[in-house]
Design a protein that fits this description.
CATH class of the largest domain: Mainly Alpha
Number of helices: 15
Radius of gyration: 23 Å
Number of domains: 2
Oligomer: single chain
Distance between the termini: 44 Å
Number of strands: 5
Strand content: 5-15%
CATH superfamily of the largest domain: Fido-like domain
Strand order of the largest sheet: 3-5-4
Helix content: 55-70%
CATH topology of the largest domain: Fic-like fold
Structural class: mainly alpha
Shape: globular
CATH architecture of the largest domain: Orthogonal Bundle
Order of helices and strands: EEHHHHHHHHHHHHEHHEEH
Largest sheet: 3 strands, antiparallel
Length: about 375
Amino acid sequence: MAAISEGSERGHEVTVTWNGAPVRAWVPHFLTGQEFDVSVRTARRTEQAIAAVRTSGGASTRFEPLALLLLRAEGLASSYIEGLRTPLADVAAAEVGETSNATAVWVADNLTAVRYALDGAGHNLTVEGIHKWHRLLMGPTGRLPEEMVGAFRTSQSWIGGTSPRTASFVPPPPDRVEDLMIDLVGFVNAESVDPVTQAAVAHAQFETIHPYGDGNGRIWRILIGWILAHRTSITVPPPVSVFIARDPGGYLAGLTRFRFGELDPWVEWLAAELQYSSEAAEGLMVRSEQLLEQWHLRTDDLRADATARQVLPVLVGHPVISSDLVAERFAVSERAARAALATLAERDIVEPYDKAPAGPGRPRLYWVASELIDIVTDWGPL
């Protein structure tokens, strides 16, 4: 396919039939063969963004639980964009299987998919790999029929409105999806452009294809993180969804301009969001480390090997924690674990979490590090 010049549309309309009526759908061009050269100004912005991403990604490795904190911020913000809003404490509880909050379970599934994707960022992507992300993302929620989980859609979809005739955007017909996705996967495995431009183009192409019956927005946000981790070798990418959630107008405008051939504004927008999110992520990590230092000061009267003190860094990765988990992690009795958590409660580090469902017999005891929850919640649009 011939290269597409700047200013040319990156797709074309086709007529499809929906409920017996003709509808116009948009089919993007294959990425293979297109040129994605950006201006000198945009190239500088992408370089600045990549530097910030690498700095933030390197900082998160100095303390592994902080990386988990960033992933939670990303997963929560990504779900927020989709209208899934729930307290972070409930999400943390859902990760250990202890909440009756269905929305929190869906957000926790998002985190599972993000972690799985990042764990595989050292290898090339495959279509089946994206299907796996989708299966993890959708989980056992019943929001999609089983045959549509981890499989491309087989019917016409639309975005906005009540039908394709009133929609704000109509993606390509289902018989075009697989070939377009194979082409997309080939593009993200190549290194023909810088990582930010690659993430911007792949993001726009995926959203345009809209290959799944549900969960497309969360999948393409996972794809951004995968590309950044794959190309820059960072462990945890910045939580860019937090900033996308703050500027939905800029996002939609940039996406539309890209489809009609304007590459630079779209790449610049994403570069700016990545730089902002990287710098903010460092701030979040600093605040979390400062809180951990305060916790240590509140427990400096305890022995260094006391279970209560050993639990402190674990709380950063598990802000909702059970006495069972403490007992297992530190090889202490259940009674000693409960005593350690009670000690931390006396010092206002944890407090009882009363939303965990009680099972048969003696209820399990859960605690939440509310100060840490507040830091993450106040940091983003959550």
